[in-house]
Task: inverse folding
């Protein structure tokens, strides 16, 4: 008998289980049908979907194109995380609106001219041993030849340098394998000096080249005094790459106008495009940067142009440090293999990619085996003698990325601009392996660390140009389209389309996310742009307003939810500097600061100090306020700048007679406020006790929150003194204000304190089993928390200990959840129903859900001390 019943029970459990699966599948089918999704779509979704709170494996830093910024997103989710302000003003980050960021932007001025846009192309991550070290990011500006350095710890731009001799550049930025230098090649040939030279002296006076920027890897600083430029013919240098491994010490730079054609369409001459593509081959420049860096130290070997050292071509030639290798035809990308033994070049107007063997090039150099020299006397190495093989890829090959099987299978990926494809091929044998169509006109492609000596594979991102026909129409200017491709198996497959609503992003680099060290908080009073303590650092209690002549300095602080000072009065015509320090330590307490109508704005992450200087040239009253919604009292985080004209006489306004509260009313309000504070304090004390009892100090993130909370709490004593003094002086009105301030501090304390408590509970509670987690979900979805609060009697009984309150607790509770109506007559239930004036409803829980809920209840009991 027992046996049969048992079997029936387990059978019904199985049926219930099948029911869940069947209904799950139906739901999925329904969605697929309604949205027209295929199995392949579902698979792609499963490979990219990242549940709320999930993290990506890779971080991508993409050029922001004409926005002059850098876009950060995650792979495989393709979620955009940040725009890093670089060459152009960016209001949210206060970039270009506070004194220090203005200074960094001003580093990018060219010959005194302010430049407010940038054409960012090629980001690069610093390397150690040819591998990404995750420390620094650099990016170039093609239009205004500049390079910026971004600190990856706080993802903030720290330096901009202007190229002193180029008028445009494209082949930057490329780190040498230990980040000793950054290579930056020119683009359009132009005079290196800043003088006028007529076009018909192109070959004589126009030049190209590669600037070799010295990089201080430790400090993340480009050192212009230690940098130099290798002069090259005006061949329109293009992309570059630094040799590594076998080819360490050498650099490679393409070019596309070995014809030195100068155009002149308005004079009836064929346009540039005809003249520059006349020859079947252009030149790859091969140069020994390591040797040239040594040579540049001797003033005999350099000429100074615009205060910068340039190594003339003859010096490079004489010292066997500069060579040319022909490459077909109007080439674009040049990419060095992970071991540095091969150099792959794509010819945009050729259907081929050419693989050069470094050993062959080196042999020709060592044997002085040249096919001749160019008009400037640079030795030319024969193409056939330098090339290993050519791969027939298709129309418009541009760029290459390597895959993890580069050694065994020569795994490489190339983009085809005209054919709109990504091609997988073998660069050892030049055999094509697979093709993947992409949306439209692909430019660069980004592999996961695909240009380092340690490529990861898994994904390739196709950086497609204007996304025709892919998204909802948004006017004639289309977004760009980054497509994520799965390359982990034999056949590539498309996973995800991400429209990029900013700039034309040329190149992107991807790095394993765990390689980046993330800075959550600045040391109090830091100027992030110098890394030093800011001259305007102000701590609580040090706030002041100082006048020096007609310059007014405000030393202010910001902390939830007030700005100190709140009134600043200056004279029209004064120069005003606001120094502001964000005194917060909690990660989520960024404040922003602006003064209405004065075009200043700053972002103040916790610990940061900023300076805002402006001329008070408008008379009047200007509210200033915090621009981040930082707490429930964020709107109240404000103050006034009053600008008065000292030459004017102001008449006083007649005072309005406002109705005052009676003494008794004031007393009642005072008592009520004090009582509220006493009650609130009791809550705080219980949280503090819990935190102390559970050794919060052992957990740094909890400790940071508690420190913040106690900071707030510590301010109460002084307010209390002021309140008591006001009572004594008979000014209850004022006392009430101080009591209210006490309450504000208490609320802030409690707010942070409770967050600390929740965090601590998560840290110290025993982990939930899968079943308990499911049970917790079922509990929430069933709305059980509408009547029950764990750890407290509310509209229903406390659930802590419920399994122990009854004999055969588990069975009893299970029955009660699944069939409450059968137990309504039970005496105990009757009395409970009376007490709460509510009856436990049947929430239609399945047996499986009920079992899971019981697992959850067991977890509660195990952690009873935490509630
Ligand atoms: S570049 S694709 Cu700078 Cu190739 Cu644009
Ligand atoms: Cu601080 Cu809003």
Result:
């Amino acid at each position: 008998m027992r046996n049969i019943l048992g079997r029936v029970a387990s059978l019904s459990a199985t049926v219930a289980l099948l029911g869940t699966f069947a209904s799950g599948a139906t739901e999925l089918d329904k969605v697929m049908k309604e949205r027209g999704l295929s199995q392949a779509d579902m698979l792609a979704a499963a490979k990219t979907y990242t549940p709320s709170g999930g993290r990506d494996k890779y971080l991508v830093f993409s050029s922001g194109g004409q926005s002059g910024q850098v876009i950060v997103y995650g792979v495989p989710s393709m979620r955009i995380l940040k725009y890093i302000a670089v060459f152009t003003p960016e209001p949210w980050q206060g970039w270009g609106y506070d004194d220090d960021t203005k200074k960094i932007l001003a580093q990018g001025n060219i010959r005194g001219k302010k430049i407010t846009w940038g054409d960012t192309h090629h980001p690069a991550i610093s390397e150690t041993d040819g591998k990404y070290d995750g420390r620094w990011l650099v990016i170039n500006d093609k239009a205004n030849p500049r390079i910026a350095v971004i600190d990856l710890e706080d993802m903030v731009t720290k330096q901009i340098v202007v190229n002193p001799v180029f008028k445009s550049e494209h082949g930057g930025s490329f780190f040498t394998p230990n980040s000793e230098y950054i290579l930056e090649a020119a683009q359009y040939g132009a005079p290196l000096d800043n003088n006028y030279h007529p076009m018909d002296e192109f070959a004589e006076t126009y030049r190209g080249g590669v600037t070799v920027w010295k990089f201080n890897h430790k400090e993340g600083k480009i050192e212009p005094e230690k940098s130099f430029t290798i002069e090259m013919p005006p061949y329109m240098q293009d992309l570059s790459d630094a040799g590594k491994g076998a080819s360490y010490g050498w650099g490679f730079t393409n070019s596309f106008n070995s014809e030195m054609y100068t155009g002149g369409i308005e004079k009836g001459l064929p346009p540039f495009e005809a003249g520059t593509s006349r020859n079947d081959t252009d030149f790859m420049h091969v140069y020994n940067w390591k040797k040239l860096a040594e040579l540049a130290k001797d003033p005999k070997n350099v000429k100074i142009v615009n205060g910068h050292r340039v190594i003339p071509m003859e010096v490079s030639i004489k010292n066997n440090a500069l060579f040319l290798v022909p490459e077909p035809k109007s080439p674009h990308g040049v990419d060095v293999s992970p071991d540095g033994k091969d150099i792959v070049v794509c010819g945009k107007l050729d259907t081929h990619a050419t693989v050069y063997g470094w050993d062959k090039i080196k042999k020709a150099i060592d044997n002085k085996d040249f096919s001749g020299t160019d008009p400037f006397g640079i030795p030319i190495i024969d193409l056939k003698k330098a090339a290993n093989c050519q791969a027939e890829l298709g129309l418009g090959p541009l760029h290459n990325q390597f895959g993890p099987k580069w050694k065994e299978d020569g795994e490489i990926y190339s983009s085809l601009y005209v054919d709109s494809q990504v091609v997988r091929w073998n660069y050892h044998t030049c055999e094509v392996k697979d093709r993947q169509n992409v949306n439209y006109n692909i430019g660069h492609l980004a592999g996961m660390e695909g240009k380092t000596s340690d490529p990861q594979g898994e994904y390739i991102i196709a950086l497609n140009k204007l996304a025709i026909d892919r998204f909802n129409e948004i006017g004639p200017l289309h977004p760009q389209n980054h497509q994520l491709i799965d390359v982990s198996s034999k056949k590539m497959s498309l996973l995800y389309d991400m429209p990029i609503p900013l700039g034309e992003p040329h190149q992107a680099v991807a790095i394993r996310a765990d390689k980046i060290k993330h800075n959550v908080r600045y040391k109090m009073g830091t100027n992030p742009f110098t890394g030093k303590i800011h001259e305007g650092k102000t701590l609580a209690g040090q706030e002041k307003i100082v006048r020096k002549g007609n310059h007014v300095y405000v030393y202010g602080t910001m902390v939830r939810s007030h700005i100190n000072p709140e009134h600043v009065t200056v004279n029209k015509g004064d120069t005003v500097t606001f120094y502001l320090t964000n005194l917060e330590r909690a990660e989520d307490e960024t404040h922003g600061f602006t003064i209405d109508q004065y075009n200043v704005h700053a972002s103040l992450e916790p610990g940061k100090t900023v300076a805002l200087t402006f001329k008070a040239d408008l008379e009047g009253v200007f509210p200033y306020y915090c621009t981040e919604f930082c707490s429930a009292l964020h709107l109240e985080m404000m103050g006034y700048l009053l600008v008065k004209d000292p030459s004017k006489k102001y008449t006083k306004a007649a005072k309005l007679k406002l109705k005052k509260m009676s003494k008794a009313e004031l007393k009642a309000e005072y008592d009520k406020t004090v009582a509220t504070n006493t009650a609130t304090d009791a809550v705080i004390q219980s949280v503090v006790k819990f935190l102390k009892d559970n050794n919060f100090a052992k957990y740094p993130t909890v400790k940071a929150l508690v420190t913040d909370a106690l900071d707030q709490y510590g301010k109460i004593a002084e307010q209390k003194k002021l309140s008591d003094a006001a009572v004594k002086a008979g000014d209850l009105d004022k006392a009430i204000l101080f009591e209210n301030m006490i309450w504000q501090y208490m609320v802030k304390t409690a707010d942070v304190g409770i967050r600390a408590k929740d965090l601590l509970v998560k840290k110290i509670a025993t982990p939930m089993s899968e079943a308990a987690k499911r049970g917790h979900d079922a509990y929430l979805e069933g709305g059980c928390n509408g009547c029950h609060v764990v750890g407290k009697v509310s509209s229903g009984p406390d659930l802590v200990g419920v399994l122990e309150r009854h004999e055969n607790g588990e069975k009893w509770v299970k029955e009660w959840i699944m069939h409450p109506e059968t137990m309504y007559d039970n005496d105990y239930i009757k009395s409970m129903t009376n007490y709460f004036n509510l009856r436990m409803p049947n929430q239609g829980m399945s047996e499986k859900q009920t079992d899971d809920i019981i697992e959850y209840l067991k977890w509660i009991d195990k952690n009873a001390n935490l509630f």
About this structure: Residues 121-122, 170, 332, 398-399, 443-444, 506 surround RUQ (ligand 1) (CB under 6 Å).
